[in-house]
UniProtKB/TrEMBL annotation:
Keyword Disulfide bond: no
Protein name: PspA/IM30 family protein
PANTHER family xref list: MEMBRANE-ASSOCIATED PROTEIN VIPP1, CHLOROPLASTIC, PHAGE SHOCK PROTEIN A
Source lineage: Bacteria, Bacillati, Cyanobacteriota, Cyanophyceae, Spirulinales
Coiled coil: 26-60, 115-155
InterPro entries membership: PspA_VIPP1 (IPR007157)
Organism of origin: Lusitaniella coriacea LEGE 07157
Biased composition (Basic and acidic residues): 246-255
Region of interest: Disordered: 200-255
Keywords: Coiled coil
Domain of life (superkingdom): Bacteria
Length: 255
């Protein structure tokens, strides 16, 4: 294969590819219908011209046919009058018009057939154009739907779902961290002395235990317990505590 053939084939292939990519179904369908309508106009004009020629040929044929009959009658008249020379001349005129009429009859028959064929083609083309218009609207709707679906798929394909999900995961972790910090702060502030005493005061078991402690303190401690010193406390450190405890006892006795 020569270099020129290869280049020619490559150019044709590239041109065909460019044309295929540039073709818009909607525009192509519109142009196809326009072309068919132009063909319909041309066919109607051709049919009109053929019919006009048919009418003119028919008129000429009828005229020559009438002349043929007229000169035939004149020949008979001249012969009846005994004028053979005049009758011969009339027959010659008759033959001339008859030959012309025969020729025109052939043309008229041919033109009549052409008119019939063109009329059938005209009707068929009109039917095709009507069908093409219906198909055009349907195909345009399908093309528009296909374009919309293609754009949607391209939009979805261009969306970065991984990055979006990663953003959601980061925000979820951040919210969880904030919740943990809030819970920790609540636990730290809720472990204060006031809340501990409030918890003790709200419990019935604590009240019962406190009442039992009061009764034990009012009843006094045993001599054995008073005689045994504490192994972990010194007399100097117990003096303020004992005094405060004695004062608490006195207050309880008064109540």
């Amino acid at each position: 294969m020569g270099l020129f053939d290869r280049l020619s084939r490559l150019v044709r292939a590239n041109l065909n590819d460019m044309v295929s990519k540039a073709e818009d179904p909607e525009k192509v369908l519109e142009q196809a219908v326009i072309d068919m309508q132009e063909n319909l106009v041309q066919l109607r004009q051709a049919v009109a011209r053929t019919i006009a020629e048919q009418k003119r040929t028919e008129k000429q044929y009828l005229q020559n046919h009438d002349e043929t009959n007229k000169w035939n009658q004149r020949a008979q008249l001249a012969l009846s009058k005994g004028d053979e020379s005049l009758a011969r001349e009339a027959l010659q005129r008759k033959k001339s018009y008859a030959d012309t009429a025969t020729m025109l009859k052939g043309q008229l028959d041919q033109q009549t057939g052409q008119v019939g064929t063109l009329k059938k083609q005209l009707i068929a083309l009109e039917s095709k154009i009507s069908e093409a218009k219906t198909k055009k609207n349907m195909l345009k709707a399908r093309a528009q739907a296909a374009k919309a679906n293609q754009q949607l798929q391209e939009t979805v394909g261009n969306m970065s779902t991984s990055s979006a999900m990663a953003a959601f995961e980061r925000m979820e972790e951040k919210v969880m961290a904030i919740e943990a910090e809030s819970q920790a702060a609540h636990e730290l502030t809720g472990s204060g002395l006031e809340e501990q005493f409030a918890a003790l005061e709200s419990g019935s078991d604590v009240d019962a235990e406190l009442e039992a402690m009061k009764q034990q303190m009012l009843g006094g401690a045993s001599p054995t317990q008073e005689a045994l010193p504490s192994a972990t406390s010194s007399p100097e450190s117990d003096v303020p505590v004992d005094a405060e405890l004695e004062e608490l006892r006195e207050q309880l006795k008064k109540t």
